[in-house]
Structures are given as structure tokens and as C-alpha cells.
Design goal:
Order of helices and strands: HHHEEHHEEHH
Number of strands: 4
Radius of gyration: 16 Å
Helix content: 55-70%
Shape: globular
Distance between the termini: 35 Å
Structural class: alpha+beta
Amino acid sequence: MDSSYDQAFGTATGAAGRLFRAYGRHCRAPNPDTLFDLLTAMHSLSDRLQKATGRDFHVFQEFVALKAIRNLAHHQEELRSNIRIIPVPAYSDLAMMCIVRRDQVERAIQTTAQRWREETQSACEAVFHWYGPAVNINPCVFNFVVKAYEMLTDADVRPPEEDVAEFAASYRYEEQHGYSH
């Protein structure tokens, strides 16, 4: 392998660590800043993974949908997300909801380049949970991180152990006990 390959692979490894650190912060103390950091880390890792392995996250609907939200937040306006622990008897796949205003998600779709807009809209409709004027993106975030972990593992991109240890332990626990990810 040449040094440019080694450098690209090392950069992807570092970016993978950043994704899992950002995800950990978002899970422990979620707020609009942790969401922004997570979306930024996700996007950066996809670019670096492409350079290192020829693969990226565009194959996942979760990435396509979250990328639209990231692009809106990065290039156009602040996300007005509302992250809450949901009380019983409310229903969600996860104990925490990350609510983004519907009008912002719709703007994220509409401001996507025309050639990607239909794919982005389909992805958002499929992976976000829509509740009238609110959209819960948290199940999508969780599912994306699982798929990213699996792709990274398959590509032999190993983030630093201290960055991924907590997530990896949870993933292994779910596998050992037959839980879906």
C-alpha cells in the first residue's frame, strides 16, 4: 500500500472515532449542539471513508435523510430541534425523541439539489417518524450509527477503542441476547 492510501485510511479511522464520540455525547446529554456535531461527524466520515475504501454511506436511506438535515443546518439555518426524554405512556422506538420541526425537514428536502431531491424525499419519508408539525429523527440517527458501525467493521476501519468501546459493547450485548439493533 502506498502512503496516500495509508493516510486516507488513517484519516477515515480518526473520523470514525469522531462519529462515535459525537454519538456518545448526543446519547448522554442531547441538545441541538450535540445533534449538529453528530450530523457533521457523519458527513465528514462518509467523505473520508469514500477516499479510503471506495465506499460511503449514501447506500443508506438514513444517511441520505440525515444529510439533508445536516446540509440545512450547516448551510442555511439553525435547527430548532427539541430533544426530550419521553414520559410513559408516549410511544417511541427509543426512550428519547429528537424532534425537528416539519417545516425545517421539508425545507431540507426542497433545498436538496434537484437530481437528488426525489431520493432524499423518499428517504426522509421512510426513516423519519412524522407527527403532524413534528418529526422524530432519533430512530433514524440510531439506525444510521448501527449501519455505519457495521460498514466500518466490514471495511476493517477500526476507530480508536476508547471512542467506540461503549457502542461496541452495547452492539455485542444486543447480538448475544437476540435483540435487533
